[in-house]
Amino acid sequence: MPRWTPTQFDTTISQPEPEVQGRVRVDVLGAPIDVLSWAATEEHIARWAAQRESRYVCICNVHSVVTASEDRELDLAIRGADLATPDGTPVAWMLRQLGHPGQKRINGPDLMLRYFHHAAPRGEGIYLYGSSRQTLDLLRQRLQSSFPDLRIVGAYSPPFRPLTPDEDAEVVRQINASGARTVWVSLGCPKQEKWMADHRGRIQAVMIGVGAAFDYHAGTVSRAPRWMQKRGLEWLHRLWAEPGRLWRRYLHTNSVFLWRAALALLERRFSQGPHASKMR
Fold this sequence. Notes:
Blueprint: E1 23-28, E2 31-34, H1 38-50, E3 55-60, H2 62-68, H3 72-79, E4 83-86, H4 89-97, H5 108-122, E5 125-130, H6 133-146, E6 151-156, H7 165-178, E7 182-186, H8 191-199, E8 206-209, H9 213-218, H10 226-230, H11 234-241, H12 243-271, E9 276-279
Parallel strand pairs: 3-4, 3-8, 5-6, 5-7, 7-8
Antiparallel strand pairs: 1-2, 1-9
Helix pairs in contact: 2-3, 2-12, 3-8, 11-12
């Protein structure tokens, strides 16, 4: 496979289609979540990336679903996403309860590795946006060790303060000039979703918000063992690792999600109304 350079990429930007063909979205407590397989998720991203379409993908867990009901800007970002995948075991479980029994959890950390496994032999450029400089350096080293042919065409650690318009324009210019086909965004919810929505049409690549994935893959934060992930207990592992930062979030969002989910399923049981529609 030949190694590509940024100048070998077409610099024009393709206009995104109004909707994903054959798209099926389900209302999960007010948030429209896509019914997707792993293969379909990767295929959508790869197809858009090949055409350099400006798209973005939200990966929605309990925190983002509940927060969207309280944050209008986040709600609009998720509704406007080209894909909103069911991250978090409870979100995928709700989709199964609402008529899609085969739905699996489509999470950010695993999506990164699965996608890079196929992007590397294609010579497809990827860009890393978010986290600290130290984490990005470690992440690049680990990714290159795992995927020697992976083309990491750039990385940027934004400051904690908002960028000025000139700074933001320069970052957009650098990303586009790099020839990146996908931009992996690790800013945390809701910041990353709002950032991606604001930059659609400006960044000539597919943006994917992956939350804490950079920290996991860099090794700066330990991820839950696989048995905990399979049993929907990854949140418990994160709470144990970072109790001071996360206990209020989980107390609020988990409680709200469980309560609203119970009410929604009871209502569905008695009404048996449709909850999904095909987006054409």
